[in-house]
Specification:
367 residues; mainly alpha; 21 helices
Protein backbone atom coordinates (compact mmCIF):
# COMPACT_ATOMS: atom_id res chain seq x y z
CA UNK A 1 0.00 0.00 0.00
CA UNK A 2 2.85 2.39 0.71
CA UNK A 3 3.89 2.60 -2.94
CA UNK A 4 0.35 3.72 -3.83
CA UNK A 5 0.55 6.54 -1.30
CA UNK A 6 3.87 7.65 -2.79
CA UNK A 7 2.37 7.67 -6.28
CA UNK A 8 -0.58 9.83 -5.21
CA UNK A 9 1.85 12.20 -3.51
CA UNK A 10 3.83 12.28 -6.75
CA UNK A 11 0.71 13.27 -8.65
CA UNK A 12 0.23 16.11 -6.21
CA UNK A 13 3.87 17.11 -6.62
CA UNK A 14 3.52 17.20 -10.41
CA UNK A 15 0.38 19.26 -10.01
CA UNK A 16 2.14 21.81 -7.83
CA UNK A 17 5.09 22.01 -10.18
CA UNK A 18 2.90 22.54 -13.25
CA UNK A 19 0.66 25.15 -11.64
CA UNK A 20 3.53 27.07 -10.10
CA UNK A 21 6.11 26.74 -12.87
CA UNK A 22 6.55 30.50 -13.16
CA UNK A 23 7.25 30.85 -9.45
CA UNK A 24 9.67 27.95 -9.55
CA UNK A 25 11.67 29.53 -12.35
CA UNK A 26 11.93 32.75 -10.38
CA UNK A 27 13.00 30.82 -7.29
CA UNK A 28 15.75 29.04 -9.18
CA UNK A 29 17.11 32.29 -10.54
CA UNK A 30 17.27 33.70 -6.99
CA UNK A 31 19.63 30.94 -5.80
CA UNK A 32 16.95 28.70 -4.28
CA UNK A 33 18.90 25.44 -4.39
CA UNK A 34 21.75 26.70 -2.25
CA UNK A 35 19.53 28.19 0.45
CA UNK A 36 17.20 25.17 0.54
CA UNK A 37 20.12 22.81 1.06
CA UNK A 38 21.16 24.85 4.05
CA UNK A 39 17.69 24.36 5.58
CA UNK A 40 17.49 20.61 5.00
CA UNK A 41 21.10 19.73 5.83
CA UNK A 42 22.67 22.73 7.53
CA UNK A 43 25.61 20.84 9.02
CA UNK A 44 26.52 19.04 5.80
CA UNK A 45 26.26 22.23 3.77
CA UNK A 46 28.44 24.08 6.24
CA UNK A 47 31.05 21.32 6.06
CA UNK A 48 31.19 21.46 2.28
CA UNK A 49 31.51 25.21 2.24
CA UNK A 50 34.31 25.08 4.84
CA UNK A 51 36.18 22.59 2.68
CA UNK A 52 35.77 24.73 -0.45
CA UNK A 53 36.99 27.90 1.32
CA UNK A 54 39.85 26.29 3.26
CA UNK A 55 42.42 28.46 1.52
CA UNK A 56 40.81 31.62 2.85
CA UNK A 57 39.49 30.23 6.15
CA UNK A 58 39.93 32.76 8.98
CA UNK A 59 41.83 31.93 12.11
CA UNK A 60 40.08 30.77 15.26
CA UNK A 61 40.24 34.32 16.64
CA UNK A 62 38.59 35.76 13.51
CA UNK A 63 35.98 33.00 13.08
CA UNK A 64 32.45 34.11 14.17
CA UNK A 65 30.90 32.13 17.02
CA UNK A 66 28.67 29.19 15.95
CA UNK A 67 25.89 27.47 17.92
CA UNK A 68 27.07 24.50 19.94
CA UNK A 69 25.81 21.08 18.88
CA UNK A 70 24.74 20.58 22.46
CA UNK A 71 22.64 23.75 22.40
CA UNK A 72 19.31 22.70 20.79
CA UNK A 73 17.65 26.07 21.27
CA UNK A 74 20.42 27.83 19.34
CA UNK A 75 20.21 25.25 16.55
CA UNK A 76 16.43 25.67 16.40
CA UNK A 77 16.76 29.44 16.13
CA UNK A 78 19.23 29.04 13.28
CA UNK A 79 16.87 26.72 11.41
CA UNK A 80 13.91 29.06 11.87
CA UNK A 81 16.04 31.95 10.64
CA UNK A 82 17.02 29.95 7.55
CA UNK A 83 13.35 29.22 6.79
CA UNK A 84 12.61 32.91 6.55
CA UNK A 85 15.08 33.27 3.67
CA UNK A 86 12.96 30.94 1.49
CA UNK A 87 9.98 32.01 -0.58
CA UNK A 88 6.67 30.13 -0.38
CA UNK A 89 7.27 28.23 -3.67
CA UNK A 90 10.68 27.18 -2.35
CA UNK A 91 9.14 26.00 0.92
CA UNK A 92 6.55 23.94 -0.96
CA UNK A 93 9.11 22.34 -3.26
CA UNK A 94 11.34 21.40 -0.32
CA UNK A 95 8.33 20.04 1.56
CA UNK A 96 7.58 17.66 -1.32
CA UNK A 97 11.22 16.55 -1.40
CA UNK A 98 11.08 15.83 2.33
CA UNK A 99 7.88 13.82 1.88
CA UNK A 100 9.47 11.75 -0.88
CA UNK A 101 12.30 10.81 1.50
CA UNK A 102 9.88 10.30 4.42
CA UNK A 103 11.50 13.12 6.40
CA UNK A 104 8.29 14.03 8.19
CA UNK A 105 9.74 16.44 10.73
CA UNK A 106 11.37 18.58 8.04
CA UNK A 107 8.24 18.44 5.86
CA UNK A 108 6.08 19.52 8.79
CA UNK A 109 8.38 22.41 9.70
CA UNK A 110 8.59 23.68 6.11
CA UNK A 111 4.86 23.35 5.41
CA UNK A 112 3.90 25.12 8.63
CA UNK A 113 6.05 28.06 7.65
CA UNK A 114 4.39 28.11 4.22
CA UNK A 115 0.92 27.98 5.82
CA UNK A 116 1.84 30.84 8.15
CA UNK A 117 2.67 33.01 5.17
CA UNK A 118 0.10 31.88 2.57
CA UNK A 119 -2.76 29.98 4.22
CA UNK A 120 -5.18 31.11 1.50
CA UNK A 121 -3.06 29.64 -1.30
CA UNK A 122 -4.55 26.32 -2.60
CA UNK A 123 -1.09 24.94 -3.42
CA UNK A 124 0.08 25.60 0.13
CA UNK A 125 -2.98 23.95 1.67
CA UNK A 126 -2.70 20.96 -0.66
CA UNK A 127 0.91 20.41 0.40
CA UNK A 128 0.10 20.92 4.06
CA UNK A 129 -2.69 18.36 3.73
CA UNK A 130 -0.20 15.80 2.38
CA UNK A 131 2.04 16.47 5.37
CA UNK A 132 -0.85 16.01 7.84
CA UNK A 133 -1.76 12.75 6.13
CA UNK A 134 1.80 11.48 6.42
CA UNK A 135 1.51 12.17 10.18
CA UNK A 136 -1.77 10.17 10.28
CA UNK A 137 -3.89 13.22 11.03
CA UNK A 138 -6.39 11.92 8.50
CA UNK A 139 -9.58 13.91 9.28
CA UNK A 140 -7.74 17.24 8.99
CA UNK A 141 -5.84 16.12 5.89
CA UNK A 142 -8.98 14.88 4.14
CA UNK A 143 -10.84 18.11 4.88
CA UNK A 144 -7.99 20.22 3.49
CA UNK A 145 -7.64 18.24 0.26
CA UNK A 146 -11.40 18.20 -0.26
CA UNK A 147 -11.46 21.99 0.00
CA UNK A 148 -8.54 22.37 -2.40
CA UNK A 149 -10.13 19.93 -4.85
CA UNK A 150 -13.22 22.14 -5.00
CA UNK A 151 -11.14 25.29 -5.53
CA UNK A 152 -8.60 23.87 -8.02
CA UNK A 153 -10.00 21.66 -10.80
CA UNK A 154 -6.46 20.42 -11.52
CA UNK A 155 -6.24 19.05 -7.98
CA UNK A 156 -9.58 17.22 -7.95
CA UNK A 157 -8.43 13.78 -9.07
CA UNK A 158 -5.16 13.64 -7.08
CA UNK A 159 -7.13 14.81 -4.03
CA UNK A 160 -9.76 12.10 -4.53
CA UNK A 161 -7.15 9.37 -4.92
CA UNK A 162 -5.03 10.46 -1.97
CA UNK A 163 -7.97 10.94 0.40
CA UNK A 164 -9.35 7.54 -0.62
CA UNK A 165 -6.06 5.91 0.42
CA UNK A 166 -6.21 7.73 3.75
CA UNK A 167 -9.79 6.57 4.24
CA UNK A 168 -8.67 2.97 3.80
CA UNK A 169 -6.11 3.50 6.56
CA UNK A 170 -8.72 5.30 8.67
CA UNK A 171 -11.30 2.51 8.31
CA UNK A 172 -13.77 4.42 6.12
CA UNK A 173 -13.86 1.73 3.45
CA UNK A 174 -17.18 2.53 1.76
CA UNK A 175 -16.20 6.16 1.28
CA UNK A 176 -12.80 5.10 -0.05
CA UNK A 177 -14.51 2.80 -2.56
CA UNK A 178 -16.75 5.64 -3.80
CA UNK A 179 -13.77 7.96 -4.26
CA UNK A 180 -11.76 5.42 -6.23
CA UNK A 181 -14.81 4.87 -8.43
CA UNK A 182 -15.09 8.63 -8.96
CA UNK A 183 -11.49 8.71 -10.19
CA UNK A 184 -12.20 5.87 -12.63
CA UNK A 185 -15.38 7.55 -13.83
CA UNK A 186 -13.33 10.61 -14.77
CA UNK A 187 -10.32 8.64 -16.08
CA UNK A 188 -11.26 5.01 -16.87
CA UNK A 189 -7.65 4.15 -17.74
CA UNK A 190 -6.20 5.34 -14.39
CA UNK A 191 -4.14 2.27 -13.49
CA UNK A 192 -3.35 3.54 -10.00
CA UNK A 193 -7.09 3.69 -9.18
CA UNK A 194 -7.66 0.20 -10.61
CA UNK A 195 -4.83 -1.14 -8.44
CA UNK A 196 -6.13 0.63 -5.33
CA UNK A 197 -9.65 -0.70 -5.87
CA UNK A 198 -8.45 -4.24 -6.58
CA UNK A 199 -6.42 -4.33 -3.38
CA UNK A 200 -9.27 -2.90 -1.29
CA UNK A 201 -11.81 -5.39 -2.68
CA UNK A 202 -9.44 -8.34 -2.20
CA UNK A 203 -8.83 -7.36 1.43
CA UNK A 204 -12.60 -7.13 1.96
CA UNK A 205 -13.11 -10.62 0.52
CA UNK A 206 -14.93 -9.25 -2.53
CA UNK A 207 -12.52 -10.99 -4.84
CA UNK A 208 -14.87 -11.50 -7.78
CA UNK A 209 -15.67 -7.77 -7.77
CA UNK A 210 -11.94 -7.10 -7.99
CA UNK A 211 -11.75 -9.22 -11.14
CA UNK A 212 -12.41 -6.44 -13.68
CA UNK A 213 -9.73 -4.24 -12.13
CA UNK A 214 -7.17 -7.06 -12.05
CA UNK A 215 -7.95 -7.92 -15.68
CA UNK A 216 -7.44 -4.29 -16.71
CA UNK A 217 -4.05 -4.20 -14.96
CA UNK A 218 -3.08 -7.53 -16.51
CA UNK A 219 -4.03 -6.41 -20.02
CA UNK A 220 -2.10 -3.17 -19.61
CA UNK A 221 0.94 -5.02 -18.25
CA UNK A 222 0.78 -3.34 -14.83
CA UNK A 223 -0.36 -6.22 -12.57
CA UNK A 224 2.13 -7.17 -9.87
CA UNK A 225 2.88 -10.71 -8.71
CA UNK A 226 0.31 -10.63 -5.91
CA UNK A 227 -2.54 -9.57 -8.20
CA UNK A 228 -1.57 -12.19 -10.79
CA UNK A 229 -1.76 -14.90 -8.12
CA UNK A 230 -5.12 -13.55 -6.99
CA UNK A 231 -6.49 -14.09 -10.49
CA UNK A 232 -5.73 -17.82 -10.25
CA UNK A 233 -8.29 -18.34 -7.47
CA UNK A 234 -11.16 -15.97 -6.66
CA UNK A 235 -12.61 -18.04 -3.80
CA UNK A 236 -9.69 -17.52 -1.43
CA UNK A 237 -6.08 -16.35 -1.28
CA UNK A 238 -3.26 -18.86 -1.48
CA UNK A 239 -2.22 -20.21 1.91
CA UNK A 240 1.19 -18.56 1.64
CA UNK A 241 -0.34 -15.12 1.02
CA UNK A 242 -2.71 -15.55 3.97
CA UNK A 243 0.05 -16.80 6.27
CA UNK A 244 2.39 -13.96 5.35
CA UNK A 245 -0.45 -11.42 5.78
CA UNK A 246 -0.09 -10.16 2.23
CA UNK A 247 -3.88 -9.98 2.06
CA UNK A 248 -4.38 -8.12 5.41
CA UNK A 249 -8.13 -8.90 5.54
CA UNK A 250 -10.82 -6.31 6.25
CA UNK A 251 -14.10 -7.35 7.89
CA UNK A 252 -15.69 -10.78 8.41
CA UNK A 253 -15.86 -11.64 4.69
CA UNK A 254 -12.15 -10.95 4.17
CA UNK A 255 -11.27 -12.78 7.39
CA UNK A 256 -13.39 -15.80 6.42
CA UNK A 257 -11.68 -16.15 3.05
CA UNK A 258 -8.32 -16.09 4.81
CA UNK A 259 -9.53 -18.93 7.06
CA UNK A 260 -10.64 -20.89 4.00
CA UNK A 261 -7.14 -20.45 2.55
CA UNK A 262 -5.99 -22.86 5.28
CA UNK A 263 -9.06 -25.12 4.88
CA UNK A 264 -10.47 -23.84 8.18
CA UNK A 265 -14.10 -24.00 7.02
CA UNK A 266 -15.58 -24.35 10.50
CA UNK A 267 -13.66 -21.31 11.78
CA UNK A 268 -14.75 -19.33 8.71
CA UNK A 269 -18.37 -20.30 9.38
CA UNK A 270 -18.10 -19.19 13.01
CA UNK A 271 -16.56 -15.89 12.00
CA UNK A 272 -19.41 -15.18 9.58
CA UNK A 273 -22.08 -16.25 12.07
CA UNK A 274 -20.68 -13.91 14.71
CA UNK A 275 -21.27 -11.00 12.35
CA UNK A 276 -24.66 -12.23 11.07
CA UNK A 277 -27.51 -9.74 11.24
CA UNK A 278 -30.80 -9.29 9.42
CA UNK A 279 -28.99 -7.07 6.92
CA UNK A 280 -26.00 -9.37 6.35
CA UNK A 281 -24.61 -8.59 2.91
CA UNK A 282 -25.43 -11.04 0.14
CA UNK A 283 -21.78 -12.09 -0.45
CA UNK A 284 -21.43 -12.96 3.26
CA UNK A 285 -24.67 -14.97 3.26
CA UNK A 286 -23.53 -16.85 0.17
CA UNK A 287 -20.11 -17.67 1.66
CA UNK A 288 -21.72 -18.74 4.95
CA UNK A 289 -23.88 -21.21 3.06
CA UNK A 290 -20.82 -22.47 1.22
CA UNK A 291 -18.89 -22.94 4.47
CA UNK A 292 -21.71 -25.13 5.81
CA UNK A 293 -21.99 -27.02 2.53
CA UNK A 294 -18.25 -27.61 2.31
CA UNK A 295 -18.32 -29.44 5.62
CA UNK A 296 -20.84 -31.87 4.14
CA UNK A 297 -18.42 -33.08 1.51
CA UNK A 298 -16.25 -36.10 2.29
CA UNK A 299 -14.05 -38.33 0.15
CA UNK A 300 -17.05 -40.04 -1.46
CA UNK A 301 -18.89 -36.82 -2.28
CA UNK A 302 -21.73 -34.84 -0.69
CA UNK A 303 -23.86 -36.61 1.91
CA UNK A 304 -27.64 -36.82 1.69
CA UNK A 305 -29.87 -34.88 4.05
CA UNK A 306 -31.52 -31.52 4.53
CA UNK A 307 -29.42 -28.47 3.96
CA UNK A 308 -30.62 -25.98 6.60
CA UNK A 309 -28.87 -23.01 4.97
CA UNK A 310 -30.80 -23.25 1.70
CA UNK A 311 -32.91 -20.20 0.81
CA UNK A 312 -33.99 -18.45 -2.36
CA UNK A 313 -31.86 -19.01 -5.50
CA UNK A 314 -28.49 -17.33 -4.86
CA UNK A 315 -26.92 -14.57 -6.92
CA UNK A 316 -23.29 -15.27 -6.04
CA UNK A 317 -20.93 -18.08 -7.02
CA UNK A 318 -20.63 -19.32 -3.42
CA UNK A 319 -24.42 -19.52 -3.15
CA UNK A 320 -24.78 -21.50 -6.38
CA UNK A 321 -22.09 -23.89 -5.11
CA UNK A 322 -23.96 -24.40 -1.82
CA UNK A 323 -27.22 -25.13 -3.63
CA UNK A 324 -25.41 -27.60 -5.88
CA UNK A 325 -24.09 -29.44 -2.82
CA UNK A 326 -27.58 -29.73 -1.31
CA UNK A 327 -29.11 -30.97 -4.59
CA UNK A 328 -26.26 -33.40 -5.29
CA UNK A 329 -26.58 -34.89 -1.81
CA UNK A 330 -30.27 -35.52 -2.38
CA UNK A 331 -29.75 -37.17 -5.76
CA UNK A 332 -31.08 -34.32 -7.91
CA UNK A 333 -28.10 -34.45 -10.23
CA UNK A 334 -29.51 -32.49 -13.18
CA UNK A 335 -30.49 -29.56 -10.97
CA UNK A 336 -27.13 -29.79 -9.18
CA UNK A 337 -25.39 -29.72 -12.57
CA UNK A 338 -27.16 -26.48 -13.44
CA UNK A 339 -26.10 -24.91 -10.13
CA UNK A 340 -22.46 -25.84 -10.60
CA UNK A 341 -22.54 -24.51 -14.18
CA UNK A 342 -23.82 -21.18 -12.87
CA UNK A 343 -21.06 -21.22 -10.26
CA UNK A 344 -18.22 -21.71 -12.74
CA UNK A 345 -19.68 -19.14 -15.13
CA UNK A 346 -19.35 -16.57 -12.35
CA UNK A 347 -16.06 -17.94 -11.01
CA UNK A 348 -14.10 -19.81 -13.70
CA UNK A 349 -11.31 -20.57 -11.18
CA UNK A 350 -13.47 -22.70 -8.80
CA UNK A 351 -11.77 -26.12 -8.95
CA UNK A 352 -14.18 -27.72 -6.44
CA UNK A 353 -17.18 -26.71 -8.54
CA UNK A 354 -15.62 -28.26 -11.66
CA UNK A 355 -14.98 -31.51 -9.77
CA UNK A 356 -18.56 -31.71 -8.52
CA UNK A 357 -19.89 -30.77 -11.96
CA UNK A 358 -17.97 -33.72 -13.36
CA UNK A 359 -19.54 -35.89 -10.66
CA UNK A 360 -23.01 -34.74 -11.67
CA UNK A 361 -22.35 -35.52 -15.33
CA UNK A 362 -21.10 -38.96 -14.39
CA UNK A 363 -24.25 -39.73 -12.38
CA UNK A 364 -26.45 -38.45 -15.21
CA UNK A 365 -24.51 -40.54 -17.70
CA UNK A 366 -23.54 -37.50 -19.77
CA UNK A 367 -19.75 -37.96 -19.81
Amino acid sequence: MRHLLCRYRLLGCILLMSVGCAEKKTAEESGFGQDAAAVIEPDATKSRRSSDDSSTEPSNDERPPTPSIEDPSAASEAEESSLKTLTVPQLLAETMRALQTDDQSTAYRLSREAMYRASDDPQTRFTYGLVLGSRKRFPEAIQLLDQVGEEMPQAKLPALGQTAEWMVQFGRYDEAYERFQAVLKAVPSAAIAHESLAQLLIRQGRRLEAREHMEFLCQSGQADEFLLRSMLCYLRPFAGDAKNQLVDPIGPLGGARNKIANDEWKQAEELLRESQTETLAAPQRALLRRCVAAQWVDASGPRTGTFSEQDAPPSHADGWFADGIWLFGNGEFEKARDRFVRCVLLDPTDAAAYALLAGCLKEIGDE
